[in-house]
Design brief:
This protein has 170 residues and is mainly α.
Length: 170
């Protein structure tokens, strides 16, 4: 089968529309989580907001049952991805090819460690563009990711029909 035929066939049907409840939960969860991280950054003066955290909120609050949304994946994925980005930046500098190698290495490392969190895949690119110091591991990466998960633990367990997380470390 050639490539054009594969494109025409698609891969199945579109997923069902989310309920109004799920849409509102995703919206309010994102508002509260980014608001909490932003306010914490404002009060402490530390940079705690990372661009990829917006995409993390899409998963954590829109799809809290997904493996990509679990605490192990959110925190582990962000920390691992930032570490790899900082290593590649330190060793090779902010070049297009080091950015590509860092992104690919991040994907493989998250898969090997079972900490895949797609939004974290952008962390090495953000690091290459910003060229931060190693403190980036703590702020915004670790503290920000932990803050998102803490908000998710509180917020996603308010409704009786939601349980978060589905698992911690397994």
């Amino acid at each position: 089968m050639n490539l054009i035929e594969k494109w025409k066939k698609g891969g199945g049907s579109c997923p069902p529309s989310p309920t109004l409840f799920d849409i509102l939960m995703g919206w309010l969860g994102g508002v509260l989580a980014i608001g909490a991280v932003g306010y914490l950054a404002h009060v402490t003066g530390y940079p705690l907001v990372l661009g990829s955290f917006g995409a993390s909120c899409v998963l954590i609050f829109g799809f809290p049952e997904s493996p990509f949304s679990q605490p192990r994946n959110v925190i582990g994925g962000h920390v691992l991805a930032s570490f790899i980005g900082l290593v590649f930046l330190s060793l090779f500098g902010p070049y297009w090819w080091s950015m590509a190698l860092a992104a690919g290495t991040t994907i493989a490392a998250m898969m090997i460690t079972r900490t895949v969190h797609p939004p974290a895949g952008s962390n090495p690119l953000i690091i290459m563009l910003l060229a931060p110091t190693w403190s980036f591991m703590l702020t915004p990466t670790l503290i920000g990711a932990v803050a998102l998960v803490l908000v998710a633990l509180l917020f996603n367990n308010i409704p009786k029909q939601r349980t978060y997380p589905r698992y911690w470390l397994r």
